[in-house]
């Protein structure tokens, strides 16, 4: 087989597996939906953290903004948001959404979430992306915490009581399957979008910033502008992921679900690092391994899962400081040849998924 | 090379693990209930109380011969997962219990937030859930058909404290409408709902809120609120923030030597304020769902006192009400299974809806929305290093000391 056709076949295989998976394993679809979202988390984190070398712990802000914006839109199109959230105090009103309202809300809510998340990134980026290295990392950590506390105090979106996304009408059928396919589609679009982006000049620009920002600037790159653009792109996809995640989880707690820095926020980094920073397939592989490990340890190591996760982190840092992709590249440079991401890795993805 | 191989083996092993469990089903003579409780994270203490309550009831029911459904006798078992005190995890685990482990009957998690996250899932799958630790009113305004709660809802938690203070307003040298109230509530679904209830009760007497603070989660510092209390001298301070909040409040009130006539809070016994702070906890008013001194009883556990004794023998500490209401949830299931006559989710759900029983924890009868309307809330006071029920007067051990004697 010619070398150029193998990637295509591999892609088709992934597509087929992705479409068939919820039909074959219906009991696992919400975890698999989460997996696709995790892939989006890792890919978007890697755009800024890996390709550009700006370790952000605050990407969870965009996830939360997207989540709230989407759900508030879903509600706000048809009811008063404050009345909807006030009903938690024991009001007798029951809010129902018919199928048309539900899908309309979602169709408008997801893009609204994406755009708001992107705008947030543009705004925050212009403020903090002048900082470098540790300063940037710590600053973004603060952003995540601050956003959570703000949401936790904002009555209009339910404050500390959280917000419940609209209850889907019965007609929608199997909710997790619906959101599985949404998440799947988003993961594919994100992946293809980034793959395209990485073939453009933009990639060289952000790589230059990673490798030596002063030189990049000296060569005439408008670094702050480029960095902000990268963050905006990451936030856009993350915003959509947030909207899907909120509806999938069916209850948005401001600190534990939306702006969950201690879970989703850290996991994004972990998955990208595990798979290999600065590569296209690394975050994907990392997300898959991470989700499988997480689900398995939550079942078999009850009460110790966080310890196991901690151990995993230590193991990654000690044995795979460059991530799985980095490790493979070092050991089998031939696999990579002149192409940056080779064929072999795709097979690895398929294997993991087929298990 | 070695690293690589070892890693791959580990990865393959990890990847294949979940599938091994996929077919674990309840076999013929066992009914498996499913529960996601907090074994780690901020609700660990109360998650543990919840789990122990469930476990004790299961043990007792099985020892007594199990449950007779139709012609067959079943033992009960519970499959647990750890929700890590995060709602996102709870919803996921509920789905996992139902879809992968084939659980047809769920027990509730700890806290309103967790219950909020799990209830939509059980509802969608038509799986009944009897919960004992989600008290927020908002749980019962969704027209859910499969959710049942053994406890009183949160707006009733501190009604007793407001009533007592209003009644004893004379001793404070005031009219009820002149009473000044300071409120400090954690910003989480449960405590915020308690706050709503308190505000409603205050309105009834025309009391004024001089402080209304919302405190962060995992409450471990409230000096700012207490400084304001020192300055504004309210008659009553109300605190609600689960176990951590209760412990923090008592500790800092003593450290900062803040004096005011009445302190009322939730979660005293689960925070073990007497054991931890001794005299410092004296005269605190505490909301409670249940107390060992109450005169309720049933055939399984005997009296409330008997339950308390058994619990203490088994786990080495007096049962907080969280354990009692959880044990009662399992009893409710056992009763409903027997009345349903078969293990069909819908039939059991209907049997649950028709529940009307007496337990050591109190009477249980669900309204349309699924909350227990038969059992009233009660109020403890810490008197001479012991919890004494002081309200409602029908079940009270002794008269409340309001305001507390000035020192």
Kindly identify the CATH topology of the largest domain in chain B.
Rossmann fold
User: Main β-sheet of chain A, in a few words?
Assistant: none
Shape of chain A: globular
Residue share in β-strands of chain B: 15-25%
Counting copies of identical and different chains, the oligomeric state is heterodimer
Instruction: Give the structural class of chain B.
Output: alpha/beta
State the strand order across the main sheet of chain B. 8-7-9-10-11-16-17
What is the H/E string of chain A?
HHHHHHHHHHHHHHHHH
The percent of residues in helical segments of chain B reads 40-55%
Number of domains of chain B: 2
Beta strands of chain B, count: 17
Helix content of chain A: over 70%
Largest sheet of chain B: 7 strands, mixed
Describe, in plain words, how this protein is organized in 3D.
The complex is a heterodimer of chains A (355) and B (407). Chain A has 355 residues and is mainly alpha-helical. Chain A has a domain at 30-265. In chain A, 74% of the residues lie in helices and 0% in strands. Chain A is built from 17 helices and no strands. Chain A is globular, with a radius of gyration of 20 Å. Chain B is an alpha/beta fold and 407 residues long. Chain B folds into two domains: 27-152 and 296-365, Rossmann fold; 156-288 and 378-391, Response regulator (Rossmann fold, 3-Layer(aba) Sandwich), CATH 3.40.50. In chain B, helix 4 links the parallel strand 4 and strand 5 (129-131). In chain B, helix 5 (159-167) runs parallel beside helix 6. The termini of chain B are far apart. At the A-B interface, helix 2, helix 6, helix 11, helix 13 and helix 14 of A face helix 1, strand 3, helix 3, helix 4 and helix 6 of B.
